[in-house]
Amino acid sequence: MDEIKVASLEDLGWGGYFKNEHSIARVVAEYREAYRVRSINGEFLAKITGKQLFLATKREDYPAVGDFVVIDEMSGKKAVIREVLPRKTWLKKKYSDKEENQLIATNIDAAFIVGSPDKDYSLNRFERYLVIAKDGGIKPVLIINKTDLLSEAELRAKISEIKERFGEVDILLTSTVTELGLGELEKYILRGKTYCFLGSSGVGKSTLINKLLGKNEIKTMEISETSGRGKHTTSTREMYFLKNGGIVIDNPGTREVGTGDSVRGMENVFDEIRLLSQNCRFSDCTHTNEPNCAIITAVESGSLDKDKYANFLKLRKESEFYKMSELDRRAKDRKFGKFVKKAKNELEMY
Length: 350
Description:
By secondary structure, the protein is of the alpha/beta class. The protein is built from 9 helices and 13 strands. The model is unreliable at 222-234 and 258-262 (pLDDT under 50). Its EC number is 3.6.1.-.
C-alpha cells in the first residue's frame, strides 16, 4: 500500500477523548502474536510485553485493531506495546463455539453494515449488526450494495422495508459496477474519523474499500456462479487510510453474528418494544403468552412488525443464554479457586 502521510496524531483518528501521551501509535492490523502499529514516525511490527501476556485473562485484555497504544519504538521498525489506552467505542460479537465475546475493532465512529440482494439478504441480519454497533456506542449506517442487480421497483421496496423496520437509520445505495453512490459514500467519510465495514462474505465490503482507495489494495476474486458469493474474502482485520483523511477498517465476512450480552444495543434497537413493555400487566412479563401483554397486543393489531418481534425474542434468548453461561463460568472459577486454596493448605501441612 502506498503510505498516506501521517503528520499528526489527528491523522490517525486521535480525538479529544484520549489523554495526550508521547509515543502514541494506533493498531492497524493484527497477526498471530504480533501487531502492526502506526505512529507519526511510520509503521512498526509490535509485540506486547510478557507482563501483559501474563496478566491477560480474556480477549479484551489484548490490543485490537483501532486501539491507541503507548509504544517504545525500536530499531528495525519494531516496537513494544506498553499500554492499551481506554477505548471510546468498540465492536464485539459472540461466536457460538466460544464462551466469551470476541472484540472485532475499537474506537470507531460509524459502522457501515453492508448487505447485497442475494439469498443472504436479511433484515434480521441487519438488526443483529445494529445491536452490536449500538451496544458499543457506534453509529450504524446501512449500505445496500450491488444495486445493479435490482430493478428500481425492487430497490424502492427494500428501502421501504428498511425504513419501516428501523426508522431513521442512514441508508446508502452503492454499486461498484455502475459506481452508483460511490461519490456519496466517499463524502460520508470525514477526515480523522474511523469507519468499519461489516457484513457477510461476498457482499462487496473489500471491493467498496478498493474503490475508496482508488486501487486494488485488498485482493478479491470473482463471484462464484453457483453460490453467488465471493471466492476469496478478507481473512484479517486491517485499517486503511484514505487520501481524503478518512480511516476505514475491513473485516472478515461471517455468516454468524452473535450478539452476546449486548444489553445497551438491544435497548436501542428495540426501543419501541421496550416502551410498549411498560404497559404490560405484569412487570416480569416475558412477552410470549401472558394475558394483557402490550407487545403481543401490538403484534396482533399489526402496529408492531411480527418479524421484528420474533427477532427480538430470538436475540433476547441468546443474550440470556450468554449471561447464564457467564454466571456458570464464574461459579466454576470460584469452585476451582477454593479447590486450589484447599490443595495449597493441605500441602503446607506436610
